[in-house]
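Backbone-to-sequence.
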């Protein structure tokens, strides 16, 4: 019994000793609390889940790490330069075993992992010596296999010679982030791609504006240089430098301030010229020149200081502990102050100019105000994130992008203003050209006047000749134009006329004049040319409408009137201003016929005189009315050209032509009941026959109201319409 009691005491003491040894050993594995990974978003591992080991380099074996004495905190700042190890445990409770791990701003890195899959060593990586994008690594992130619902022990080596002293102090010690590898990889690629996209866009616009400057001079030089410099700053950032292998000298030494100071100079010069400070606000302009001088001094000082990179204080953290300010004799947030003051002055001056009636200054004022929205955001970030850290920098840098957005507003206005100036110049040139070519007349007019050259044309030259006139006009153009800007109006009219003009010329005619959206064309060879031109114009219009429908625009309709008759062709005006024109009642009748297309809702009408000039059966026509137009005592026989309709509708109208013609005859003979029967048959067979519909309504009205057989003559008197 005594022996059993002693044995029990011995075992108890042995167990207690074992526990004491474990508790007070350097390894102390039970004191390391596992970090629970239970969300797929990127998370930061808390400091209480980390242990540190100093004094061992990256090539230390795994067993040495397992048996080393670890501490809860780094006690030696120089470890950021000399390198240190971080140990932590991750319990993977998400639905993936492919995890991404990052130790912030590491310039050298190595990993060991230990789990049910065994011990895995991840290859050592050093900036500028190894590929930064690989199958198992992108940016500062490693791809790690962590079995689900299991603890994984991780040993992470970190070294970052703190050339960027701000990031080294705030983020370089213990900020470990972890999340899904696919999400992390996508985020890094998107970030890198967005940087490249920004660079490409800025550089493209910068080059574009530079070429504009070469052609037109002006403010485009500083606009161009600002965009190019902004692209250079983003190009040489530390994150891009990791991927591209650039020296950190360009990103985190005083050289970075050289790049930023150049951007400030270019922007200040742009502001100065955009606001025309030299003429409008000469005193304020001197302050802008002083600001430029300040940044020039900063450039010189920082450039020569950067040549000594790396500095002693950046390599000896015992003698020179890390600070929160970054490199440079004048810290960056102090460098911003002069630019901020000049930006405020730009707001004041642009506002004053706007109040004086300069509308463009209003856009500039808005552009200058937008960057100041970063100030409340920066204050909020400082309070929320407890000082200057990586989160604060992210908020400030993002809000500072508003400056470039505001500048793009200014850029847009500058371009618009330049375009207005170019339009004004073009108008002045056009006026000069018009003055030089005021005596110009169409070559067909020269031929008709028997003149060899425009130099032979004299005021009052004239000839009498039978010609055919085509008068076309866009229906409801006023309502159509109200939906468009002036620029779109001109573009639309010119596009339309460019399609119709060649048709006239191809059919041996010439355009006498454009009257807004209307065309007046003359044909001296034959009436056939005029009618064929009209039919071709309608065919071309249908094709043009297909294009407009495809672009989401409304279709357009035109009316065309064709007449033939004697007219005086010659020159009108005075000695210093004359033009070729025609004088004839035949021209007025062509215009009246075009107007009648609206009444009869048909696209192409011609007079009896024109019809008699055409070869029989060359075109499909039908008589539709006898009209007394305004200004003419003798009624005009108005004919519809069926060839102007779409082929299907033309064939349908031709199929009812016998009944329609008989109906017209009965109508003229006051046999309205019989005429109504025939017109009704035509309309039922061809519902789109608007003329038949018109006569149905006419007959019904006459039958309902009655008529005076002695006075009724079958003439449509337009004077009363």
């Amino acid at each position: 019994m005594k022996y059993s009691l002693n044995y029990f005491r011995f075992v108890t003491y042995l167990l207690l000793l074992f526990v004491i040894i474990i508790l007070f050993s350097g390894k102390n594995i039970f004191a390391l609390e596992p970090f629970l990974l239970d969300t797929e978003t990127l998370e930061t591992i808390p400091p209480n889940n980390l242990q540190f080991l100093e004094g061992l380099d990256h090539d230390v074996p795994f067993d040495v790490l397992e048996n080393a004495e670890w501490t809860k905190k780094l006690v030696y700042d120089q470890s950021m330069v000399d390198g240190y190890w971080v140990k932590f445990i991750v319990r993977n409770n998400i639905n993936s075993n492919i995890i991404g791990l990052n130790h912030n701003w590491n310039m050298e890195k190595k990993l060991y992992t230990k789990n049910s899959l065994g011990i895995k060593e991840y290859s050592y990586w050093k900036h500028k010596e190894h590929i930064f994008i690989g199958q198992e690594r992108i940016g500062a992130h490693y791809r790690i296999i962590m079995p689900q619902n299991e603890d994984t022990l991780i040993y992470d080596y970190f070294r970052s010679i703190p050339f960027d002293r701000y990031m080294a102090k705030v983020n370089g010690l213990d900020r470990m982030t972890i999340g899904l590898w696919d999400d992390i990889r996508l985020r890094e690629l998107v970030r890198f791609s967005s940087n490249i996209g920004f660079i490409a866009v800025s550089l493209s616009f910068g080059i574009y504006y530079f070429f504009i400057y070469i052609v037109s001079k002006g403010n485009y030089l500083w606009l161009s240089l600002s965009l190019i410099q902004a692209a250079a700053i983003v190009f040489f950032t530390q994150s891009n430098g990791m991927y591209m292998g650039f020296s950190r000298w360009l990103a985190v030494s005083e050289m970075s301030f050289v790049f930023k100071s150049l951007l400030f100079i270019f922007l200040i010069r742009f502001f100065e010229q955009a606001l025309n400070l030299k003429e409008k606000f000469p005193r304020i302009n001197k302050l802008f020149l002083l600001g430029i001088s300040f940044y020039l001094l900063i450039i010189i000082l920082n450039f020569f200081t950067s040549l000594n990179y790396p500095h002693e204080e950046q390599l000896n953290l015992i003698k020179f502990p890390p600070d929160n300010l970054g490199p440079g004799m004048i810290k960056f947030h102090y460098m911003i102050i002069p630019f901020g003051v000049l930006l405020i002055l730009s707001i004041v001056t642009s506002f004053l100019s706007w109040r004086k009636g300069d509308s463009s200054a209003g856009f500039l004022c808005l552009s200058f105000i937008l960057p100041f929205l970063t100030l409340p955001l920066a204050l909020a970030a400082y309070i929320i994130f407890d000082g200057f850290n990586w989160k604060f920098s992210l908020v400030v840098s993002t809000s500072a992008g508003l400056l470039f957005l505001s500048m793009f507003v200014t850029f847009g206005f500058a371009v618009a203003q330049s375009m207005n100036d170019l339009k004004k110049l073009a108008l002045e040139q056009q006026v000069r050209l018009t003055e030089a070519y005021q005596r110009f007349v169409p070559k067909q007019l020269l031929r008709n006047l028997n003149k060899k050259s425009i130099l032979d044309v004299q005021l009052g030259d004239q000839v009498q000749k039978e010609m055919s006139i085509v008068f076309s006009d866009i229906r409801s153009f006023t309502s159509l134009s109200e939906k468009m800007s002036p620029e779109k109006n001109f573009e639309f009219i010119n596009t339309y006329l460019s399609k119709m003009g060649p048709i006239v010329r191809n059919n041996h005619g010439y355009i006498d004049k454009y009257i807004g959206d209307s065309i007046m064309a003359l044909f001296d060879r034959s009436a056939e040319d005029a009618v064929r031109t009209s039919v071709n114009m309608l065919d071309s219009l249908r094709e043009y409408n297909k294009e407009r429908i495809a672009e989401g625009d409304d279709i357009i309709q035109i009316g065309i009137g064709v007449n033939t008759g004697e007219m005086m062709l010659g020159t009108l005006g005075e000695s210093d201003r004359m033009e070729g024109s025609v004088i004839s009642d035949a021209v007025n009748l062509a215009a009246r016929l075009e107007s009648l297309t609206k009444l009869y809702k048909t696209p192409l009408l011609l007079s009896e005189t024109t019809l008699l000039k055409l070869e029989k059966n060359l075109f499909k026509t039908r008589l539709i009315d006898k009209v007394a137009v305004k200004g003419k005592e003798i009624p005009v026989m108005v004919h519809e050209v069926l060839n102007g309709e779409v082929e299907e509708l033309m064939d349908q109208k031709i199929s009812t032509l016998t009944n329609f013609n008989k109906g017209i005859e009965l109508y003229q003979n006051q046999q309205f009941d019989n005429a109504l029967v025939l017109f009704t048959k035509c309309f039922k067979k061809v519902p789109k026959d608007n003329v038949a519909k018109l006569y149905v309504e006419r007959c019904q009205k006459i039958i309902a109201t009655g008529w005076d057989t002695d006075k009724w003559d079958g003439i449509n008197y337009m004077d009363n319409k």
